[in-house]
Structure prediction request, 486 residues.
Amino acid sequence: MPSPLFFVRRRSSYRPLRWIVLAGLCVWLLASGCQAFQPLPPGLSSSPPLREAQDVGLLIDQTYVTSEQQRVSEQQVFDEVLDLISQARKLIVVDMFLFNDFAGQDSYRPLSAQLTESLLQARSRHPNMPIVVITDPFNTLYGGVHNAHLQALEDGGVTLVMTDIGQLPASNPVWSGIWRLCCSYLGNDAQSGWVPNPVGAGKVTLRSYLHLLNFRANHRKTLIVDEGDSWTGLVTSGNPHDASSRHSNNALRFSGAAALDLLASEAAVLHFSSEIETSDWPSPPPATANEGAQLQVLTEAAIRDALLELIDSAQPGDRLDLEVFYFSHRPLIEALIRAQQRGVQLRVLMDANRDAFGREKNGVPNRQVAWELHKTGIEVRWCATQGEQCHRKWLRLDRADGTSELISGSANFTRRNLDDLNLETSVRLLAPAQQAVMHAAREQFERSWNNPNGEQHSLPYADFADHSRWRYALYRFMEFSGISTF
Prediction:
């Protein structure tokens, strides 16, 4: 039998290891905290004043199946984007999250090539016109793959800016703390890949995967151009991404002071991501009192605040319609339930979170949130997708007094999209209920909800109902921790 001295020596031999492990944990927690709570760069999370809603138009992309079982994709968003670019003479600023042809073998439309060609033609027509394209480094898998479209833009004289997403707070701090300590200083290249490409053919480096796990993103989808003596902005839920070309999306186009607010919001991204000088760009004018329809550009958490304010303002007799790709944000869910309890008429149309570019997902988080809403009596239906995604992110309130409010744009209704983590842009429109854009938005929702003329746009709640408590717990953990792709 070992002597008591043996056990004393054995315990003492573990003490340095324990201190090393404890020190490592402390360093990791400190790094994670610094990443999670680092402040946003200046100019983000903005809510400029309400402006006169000038030349507002609603654009719709919709994919559905006809009564003859034919698949139809109606397209308006990028037709308008290309038209606006083609007539610009002074300035073009594009900010798009996905700008690539990854996973696009069965695409309906080569959107990335069409946008690239349109911008290069604009450069050829007007050699001295500033043309700026802002995008997310995911489009090169953080340096791990070659993106021919972005390279063509650079070669053609278009100014390309990769957003410095490392300046954003960590949406997955559990990993980002480790990333900061061990891997953030590593470079990347497109030649030495040895692991499968997660979004296409060929190989990528392990560094691409490690970078991806941070889940930071510039998720905006905007365009600003001149139109003669005026300025026009466009905010959409759609991407110039070939594999997304059948997705159901929408956009709001508008002119006037609000377009310059949108331009200022993009200048803020350029200020922390590049050395581009924007001081000679037109500035938004001072706010003025106006009547009639009003429009406001919102970014980051200002979108969340506007959504909550809209829902909390709804009263008995009002109708609230919502259509969204990802829905998991706890304060919004709770606000909808409170509105239902107050007597507000509610309809929620969601993607079933099944289809992801040829891969089948497990339905998290939408099916779990749908269960929660359904139990309270809120009407829920699913978009009837056939491989594409129901990719809109909009909410409309029709009040009993004849006024309406619409919030629409890039931001999904999730913690990552609404709590100052991703870069996002949405638009808030206040107008009479029968104003043209409000009427068009209402008609589109009714079409999607009611399946007129034998068309199939949506399915009943029961078709994708998921009452698994395990998956509900998984959704809550993923939303809280940030260890998720939504």
